[in-house]
Description:
12% strand; Rossmann fold; 5-stranded parallel beta sheet; 9 helices
Amino acid sequence: MRDSYAAGGSGADDIKVAPQGSAAKGFPRPVILIGPPGAGKGTQAKTVAARYGVPHLSTGDMFRDHFGRGTELGVRAKAFMDRGELVPDEIVVAMIEQRIAAPDCAHGFILDGFPRTVAQAEALDRMLGRAGRSEPLVVHVKLDSSLILRRLTGRRMCKVGGEIYNIYDRPPKTPNRCDHDGGELAQRDDDREEVIRERLAAYEEHTQPVVAYYRQRGLVQDLDGSGAPEAVTRALFELIDREEGRGRHL
Ligand SMILES: [Zn+2]
């Protein structure tokens, strides 16, 4: 896994075997997925990557890859993290710049978890320009905070097998007991209401200006994230087919 893009061979093979006429042909504009915690962005990004045959780039995966390979960027990033400081944007952007130069990104990619601030969005823009890439298609997943709170504060995990339940939307048959193994269900600290409210406030403060930044340039498409995951996926595919198709004919 750690050499998956350093070698560069797998991307070319993927493109060669992609069935003709299917959706697995990439897209011209990089897709950036932006949405609040609880919107299921990671899952949606993976389904897009699978359908269109493009890599799903997440900053978390990139950090782990650089740490694992002991790269210079990884060493620099880790020094900041060890001091409890944020990794500077230039390091993250440099990681993305290296990553999208790999052959498997030649026909597009989907980015999730970045940019989170306007400064990061500006840095990403300059980098995409340097790389000769098209302007991004920014998909903004919209979700009411009441629904986010319900999804996240309702989550319970089995202490035995790790199964996930939701006391509102997917309750166990017996309250507080796992259907599979009878294990006790517990709430993760990260899912407590005050933690979720803090994350939502941080999202509003830092990320909504990013959406505004892209919106003024006409790059944002809103997506209703309140439906079932499968319905959101269908709407996302339609949106990408429509917008990326239009991009090709400009
Ligand atoms: Zn269980």
